[in-house]
Amino acid sequence: MDAFYASVELLRRPELRGRPVAIGGHGDPNSRGVVTTATYEARAFGIRSGMALRRAAELCPQCVFLPVDFPEYRLWSRRFKAAIAEVTSRIEDRGIDEVYIDFSDLIGVRIDGGLAIARDVQRRVFAATGLTCSIGVAPNKLLAKIASELDKPNGITVLDELDLQDRIWPLPAKRINGIGPKADARLEELGIRTIGELAAAPRDFLVARFGRSYGAWLHEAAHGRDDRELVLESEPRSMSRETTFERDLHPERDFQALAAVLATLCRQVAADLRRRGYAGRSVGVKARYDDFRIVTRELTLPEPVGDERAIRRAAFECLKRVPPVRRLRLLGVRVGNLSAQAR
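and the corresponding structure tokens:
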């Protein structure tokens, strides 16, 4: 989906169309939150996901900031996925704003490489929601993911193996889903900046520097090879909630304020688990210091828990193990090792 959260907000605030809009936190650019997504008009000013709201306001003083409204986004997420399900049931859910779709068994896919089907999906999504999406059609998930980002917004890109050299290899290596900032920086140190340069690197060279598994994967990915099947039924591995503080809090001197925040996060996670019918065997706490270093602490429990009291008890045990060496700017709670519970 194209700038999904921002696009949903524009449905109920059409007067903001054409203006730079950023979604994040409580919608206050003076707060400690970060940008979740932004309209393309805001992106033209350099505003990006994960950027501090204050920095975004500096880049674009005229930007309109709105709070995150996850219940509303989940509603529209279900609607666009239902529209796609009218075309095929072979859908891998990749989160609130993205799916993989298997076109291979649909009539006509061999005629134009799936272009007509992709246009049909776009039309159905727009008719059901008023929202636009960008689609990449390719032989595998890796190339489809890259292709879906080549012609945003509201674009369709069809790729096959013959397009690799001209369309994929000139792109930055980090455009491959799975090459994060650290790996990209390491590749740049080695003089590898594009996917084509990565493809030209010998497999043994990559394995020696990135390890057997990741090095081999880098070599395969650069050549557009990916044999992953669609995951048609997936279970969540964890559920979490986190918040960034308006002011940094010290683990000892501001313990009461931290405790109140932690209790609220535990209550929210418990509600998420209850709504979806899950419990978890592990409870963890994530803390980010004022120097942006992150520390996590986790507790494995003898049996799955989903109620607020049990989660809170375990989370506070984890919080006690967070070294009180600096003030904290963020706190989060995570329940993992999930299993479905009988209703």
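(Above: one complete record from the training split.) DSSP finds 14 helices and eleven strands in the chain.
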